[in-house]
Amino acid sequence: MQLTVRMPDNYTEKLDTLSKKMGLKRSDIVRLALKQFLEADSEKNPQSPFQKVRHLLGRTESGLKDLGQSHRRYLIQKIRKGSS
Predict the structure, then answer these.
(1) CA pair distance 17, 24, nearest whole angstrom
(2) Which of 16, 35, 36, 82 has the fewest CB atoms below 10 angstroms from its CB?
(3) Which pLDDT does position 52 carry in this prediction?
(4) What is the dihedral of CA 32, 38, 42, 44, to 10 degrees?
(5) Of 52 and 79, which is predicted with more confidence?
(6) Which CATH number fits domain 1-45: 3.10.180.10, 3.40.190.150, 1.10.10.10, 1.10.1220.10?
(7) Which pLDDT belongs to residue 44?
(8) How many CB atoms lie within 10 A of CB 19?
């Protein structure tokens, strides 16, 4: 199957440079890039929304040792300070 792709001039320049450097045709490089993109998004390596943000969870500190037990009290204090 043949596919025509429009791209910015700077992409074309970079593609030509890479083509010469690797000794491959431009179409070969595009096929390799497309293959890599599609495989990265394939079902072989699915990530749930949780997995995508897992490294961000549980990484912050409030400085309050009893926040889990007294969260309601701290929330009320914060609301009262915001309304004054």
Answers:
(1) 10
(2) 82
(3) 82
(4) 10
(5) 79
(6) 1.10.1220.10
(7) 63
(8) 16
Q: Model pTM?
A: 0.49
Please calculate the CA angle 67-64-54 and round it to the nearest 5 degrees: 70
Pairwise CA distance, residues 58 & 37, whole Å: 31
Whether residue 59 has pLDDT greater than 70 = no
| Alpha-carbon span 68 to 72, nearest angstrom | 9
pLDDT of residue 10: 95
Interatomic CA distance for residues 13 and 49, integer angstroms: 37
Lowest mean pLDDT among 8-17, 18-27, 54-63: 54-63
**Radius of gyration of the chain from Cα atoms?**
26
DSSP state of 83: H
Domain spans, the chain: 1-45
